[in-house]
């Protein structure tokens, strides 16, 4: 074996190395746990402020944590997306279903989730869908045809109305729900 010819001294050296390695591993794990706990506490306070009270904030943060466990997304991606949406005026009761739907559109891609949350939040904050946000959605796989269908228009009609600023934020929400709801192209992508 590995100790043949090394005797007791070799065995003790090997044991010391094993204990040192285990100690390093435990210390690193402890630092990660403390860091994660500290990050959670900061997020919990932020969510409480944005939600209007600590209890609602804690519940939403817990919901984001559960969503992270159930999907390929990191907790950090979901909490930052939720914070962004709250900051752009999305109601606390709409955050979880919106993040689930955006997560389905992003199909497990954390960067895409961030871009989609930004685009959706901007549409909701402005009250209408415009070219910049449409481009962001298109880059994520949701194009003019999807929004035109949600609006009940042809693509030409949709583009013309969008250029006039006449496509409301409700159309983005409707398209999101159609695409991720039962029978939608992105339904259950993270289930």
Topology:
Blueprint: H1 7-51, H2 54-70, H3 75-87, H4 92-106, H5 110-126, H6 131-139, H7 144-151, H8 155-163, H9 169-180
Helix pairs in contact: 1-2, 1-3, 2-3, 2-4, 3-4, 3-5, 4-5, 4-9, 5-6, 5-9, 7-8, 7-9
Structure notes:
By secondary structure, the protein is an all-alpha fold. The protein is 76% helix and 0% strand.
Question: Any key phrases for this structure?
Answer:
single chain; 191 residues; mainly alpha; 9 helices
The helix/strand order is: HHHHHHHHH
Report strand %: under 5%
Radius of gyration: 24 Å
Number of strands: 0
Q: What's the mean pLDDT score?
A: 84
- How would the global form be characterised? elongated
Instruction: Indicate the structural class.
Output: mainly alpha
- The low-pLDDT segments are 25-35
Distance linking N and C termini: 48 Å
Q: What is the helix content?
A: over 70%
Main beta sheet: strand number and arrangement?
Answer: none
Q: What is the number of helical segments per DSSP (H or I, 4+ residues)?
A: 9
Task: Kindly summarize this structure in a few lines.
The chain is mainly alpha-helical and 191 residues long. It has nine helices and no strands.
